[in-house]
Specification:
alpha+beta, transferase, 2 domains, Aminopeptidase, Acyl_CoA_acyltransferase, BioF2-like_GNAT_dom, 12-stranded mixed sheet, 11 helices
Length: 324
Amino acid sequence: MIEARYHDSVNVLQALSANAAGAPFDRAEWYALLAETGLTPLIAIARDADHAAALALTEDGGHVSPLRNWYSFTWRQLAPEGPAGDRLLEAIARQLKTRGHRVTLEPVPGEDGSAQRLAQAFRAAGWRVLVEPCDTNHVLPVRGRSFAEYWEDRPGQLRTTLRRKAKKVETQVLTRFDPQVWAEYEAIYAASWKPAEDQPAMLRAFARREGEAGRLRLGVARADGATIAAQCWTVENAIAYIHKLAHLESHTALSAGTTLSAALFQHVIDIDKVDLIDFGTGDQSYKADWMEDVRPRFCIDCLDPAQPRAWPPLAKRVLLSSSA
């Protein structure tokens, strides 16, 4: 017998996320940070005698969506693999009809089967499901190479830039959280071309926690004693995640961002021995210089045909498909 329930606290995810060998964005601690930003958790959990599965969600006006923000590279289910987990996910999907007429899940990875599992669960529960690519993820499979071997395969212009500019910039990679260095990062970010941080306190708390766990790789580049570029990476389960990077436009001629990126790539490849480097979401052209593979991220949009509020978007789908 399967029991499905809702909770408004992310604490119930502790046991489930502890067993997940996923990304930083699968942990209960990550969802706790999201809740502290003002998001209201809707944690849907299903259990049977031997297993449990959960979806970390939020809800607004009958529209259910993932508990996430723009710092999250991915969002996915917390569920055991195999038929047992699939049955629990279907039970959650069926129960969610009592909380909303629409469920939109994104950005869901496909390479691990998450997009297929979730779409299948909601279809089996009676939802009308549309799956579409919604974002791009650039990654670098290291394939056992050293940094020197990897660097030989980079575009000539990138290699030339590093050769000409590297001696003008001093880089440092910290594996701990340093409040002063983080303050320098925040100052650089505020003065850079980047949009204003949505939740800077959350990112700082995340970096501090990752530093305490030994997962943080905080890179800084300096010229004449001034910090002019900074990057925040983390490493776990043989994967390096590039979370944030920024440099001062006033020092663009020094190419400090390129030099600092090379230092961090060298650190995670030669010292941390990672198997994969993940550049998050977004299809910015510069990422192709550093990364070699591209993976899609999916939006799974589910509408309940039994609820009148779902009829207008369902009709819109029909019109769009007929005109395509």
